[in-house]
């Protein structure tokens, strides 16, 4: 019965993809849902894209390892959404562009778009990979099939519905997924596992005082999560692309704030589920297996099917968002910019494009990224590992140039290129030398980016006034 529930859910997702395809008539429809989302739909789609495999499967796994303090990874994601919505989202929404790299070109002038596009494409691909790893583990446990066909099954469904209708399909499926994961996590799984584990007093007595210590995971780990995830949420293409869908700056700010608060609650819920799972299903060695194990242990088949559908909802919404984000950046800011440089064509910096050819190209690149994410998922052992790689590269390479463009008038294209290259190279080298989960890659990478950005900007000529005037005009829209 639980398998039947999940299969019905997957079929419904493809159905929404077909429905969304009928609403997609232009590039603006395909990439940003026509920039027409109101508060309810915007909240649902933004929450769905940030609360994916690492937040659900990974968040429960961290709760299993560290108790309540395992909440900090997802909690920092929520803080990032709150900061983005209050301070930057209205400004971003008014730009009327499609990608983060286009913002850099608007602010600094030509020269950074391809380099930043490559970094952002790699980030999008790794985010998609985290979700692919997660739903592979869910299908493996649910259907009893090997990991490879499990990944291929889930990946194919995500690619199909995302490819058909683009952001309209993803928005519709995201909203349904948001409702399912809210009911499944908050109203079903959390109360059931807490009760079956004997309540909070029994859990504390069994596991000891550290189970509910909010900082037991360690101050340095919490600070690293803040640097990687809170700051990373300010600049991710998958997040910005959702901001572009809002119909007004007010929707982007206040609906985004409600999403951030929801994420904080989701962080606590996931950590508590993982903490209770230590009592119910002790001895699990792979943290990504905890979610399916505690669901199987605690529930009758029908409820288990619904909760597993909730996990799939969280995972697939992030996967689809990352696929359209990564493929959009790669097509517009890498492939098409390379072609424009060769032919001298005009630069695309937003606006409605009715070309069916461009929508078709977007579909092709989304499929390519989907296939690549499934391939990477076969060699990535952990959703948290893949997420850490993604955000290390993103934050070290692009945080300083992007935030600098929004708040530092003296920043220049020379500083941008220096900051991106220094931050990315330093972080990648340190991940190889010190390990993916070490603190030094993000610390040193971010420091290198700050120094290179400031030195490069102050040592070069200021950004030309016509570029800054065009930037100011966009922000006044």
From TrEMBL:
Stored InterPro entries: Na/Glc_symporter_sf, Na/solute_symporter, Sodium:Solute_Symporter
Give the bilayer topology: Multi-pass membrane protein
GO cellular component terms? plasma membrane
Compartmental location: Membrane
Q: Report any Pfam family annotated for this entry.
A: SSF
Q: Which domain of life is it from?
A: Bacteria
Q: Does the keyword Electron transport apply?
A: no
UniProt GO MF annotations: transmembrane transporter activity
**Key words of the record:** Membrane, Transmembrane, Transmembrane helix, Transport
Q: Which residue positions does the secretion signal occupy?
A: none
Keyword Membrane (UniProt): yes
Q: Where are the transmembrane segments?
A: 6-21, 42-64, 70-89, 117-142, 148-168, 175-195, 215-236, 257-281, 301-325, 364-383, 389-408, 415-436, 442-459
Regarding protein family, the annotation reads:
Belongs to the sodium:solute symporter (SSF) (TC 2.A.21) family.
- Fetch the PANTHER family from UniProt: SODIUM-SOLUTE SYMPORTER-RELATED, SODIUM/PROLINE SYMPORTER-RELATED
Protein name stated in the entry: Sodium-solute symporter, putative
Organism equals: Brevibacterium yomogidense
């Amino acid at each position: 019965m639980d398998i039947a529930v999940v299969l019905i859910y997957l079929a419904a997702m493809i159905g929404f993809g077909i429905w969304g395809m009928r609403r997609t008539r232009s590039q603006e429809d395909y990439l940003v849902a026509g920039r027409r989302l109101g508060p309810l739909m915007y909240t649902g789609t933004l929450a769905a894209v940030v609360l994916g495999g690492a937040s659900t499967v990974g968040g429960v796994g961290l709760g299993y390892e560290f108790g309540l303090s395992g909440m900090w990874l997802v909690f920092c994601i929520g803080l990032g959404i709150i900061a983005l919505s209050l301070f930057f989202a209205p400004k971003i929404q008014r730009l009327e562009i499609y990608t983060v790299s286009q913002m850099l070109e608007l602010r600094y002038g030509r020269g950074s778009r391809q380099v930043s596009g490559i970094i952002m494409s790699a980030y999008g691909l790794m985010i998609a990979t985290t979700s692919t790893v997660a739903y592979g583990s869910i299908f493996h446990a649910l259907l009893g099939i090997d990991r490879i066909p499990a990944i291929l099954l889930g990946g194919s469904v995500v690619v199909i519905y995302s490819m058909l209708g683009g952001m309209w399909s993803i928005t519709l499926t995201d909203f349904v997924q948001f409702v399912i994961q809210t009911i499944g996590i908050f109203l079903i799984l959390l109360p059931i596992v807490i009760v079956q584990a004997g309540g909070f007093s029994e859990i504390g007595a069994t596991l000891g005082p550290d189970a509910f210590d909010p900082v037991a995971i360690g101050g340095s780990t919490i600070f690293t999560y803040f640097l990687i995830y809170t700051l990373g949420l300010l600049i991710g293409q998958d997040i910005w692309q959702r901001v572009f869908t809002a119909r007004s700056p007010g929707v982007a700010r206040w609906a985004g704030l409600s999403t951030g608060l929801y994420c904080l609650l989701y962080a606590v819920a996931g950590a508590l589920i993982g903490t209770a799972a230590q009592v119910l299903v002790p001895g699990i060695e792979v943290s990504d297996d905890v979610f399916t194990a505690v669901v199987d242990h605690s529930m009758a088949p029908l409820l288990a099917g619904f909760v597993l559908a909730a996990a799939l909802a969280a995972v697939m919404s992030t996967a689809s968002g990352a696929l359209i984000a990564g493929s959009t950046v790669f097509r517009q800011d890498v492939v098409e910019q390379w072609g424009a440089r060769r032919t001298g064509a005009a630069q695309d910096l937003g606006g409605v494009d009715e070309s069916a050819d461009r929508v078709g190209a977007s579909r092709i690149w989304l499929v390519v990224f989907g296939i690549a994410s499934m391939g990477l998922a076969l060699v990535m052992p952990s959703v948290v590992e893949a997420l850490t790689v993604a955000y290390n590269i993103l934050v070290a390479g692009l945080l300083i140039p992007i935030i600098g463009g929004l708040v530092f008038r003296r920043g220049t294209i020379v500083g941008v290129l220096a900051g991106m290259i220094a931050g990315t190279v330093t972080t990648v080298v340190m991940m190889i030398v010190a390990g993916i989960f070490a603190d030094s890659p993000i610390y040193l990478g971010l420091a290198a980016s700050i120094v290179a950005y400031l030195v490069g900007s102050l040592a070069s000529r200021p950004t030309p006034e016509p570029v800054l005037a065009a930037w100011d005009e966009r922000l006044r829209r």
